[in-house]
Predict the 3D structure of the following.
Amino acid sequence: MKSRDNEEKKSLGDYGIIFLSGSIDAGVSQTVCQEIIRINIEHSADFVQMIVNSVGGHVSAGFAIIDMMEWSRLPVYTTGVGMVASMGLAIFMAGEKGHRVLTPRTSVLSHRFSGMNAGNYSDLIARRKEEDFLHERLIRHYMEHTSLKTVEEVESVLLRDVDAWLTPEEAMEYGITDRIEHKNRTMRG
């Protein structure tokens, strides 16, 4: 039998749980990717449970997490709590189909990415090409992970010029989530 001291020293990752919270940048992305790798190597769980409470962040950092989720041999289940916004939403949607869960009070935000560029004319032209690629990647991602199947649908409903705030029920209607979990039935006494 394990002692209480050893049990208390375990991290969430030891149970296959990753908590993605706050703004997504290169450092957060690296930590999450490393945890996915560690859980896969250690086989400490049958699946990775990623809990997402994020306002979003850098698109490239978010896509690194999504790529690692797809690389994972273990399925990655996602649960959205608090706020699931922007790149945090893209990560949430990439969870294993059938296992993407929102809690009933989760705020959901979808919008086009934004950025600022500086440099000479050639730099700006080159950066514009990358921004066009990012927009195309996001559209394909939304088409793959929602019930919206055309560019026009995605751009008119979820990647509009203005923020699209959704209730969990609306997120379910668009195929962003698979269910809304009101209570954790396995934790009842």
Remarks:
- Helices lie at 4-8, 26-42, 59-71, 87-93, 121-145, 151-157, 168-173.
- The longest strand covers residues 48-57.
- The chain has a mean pLDDT of 90.
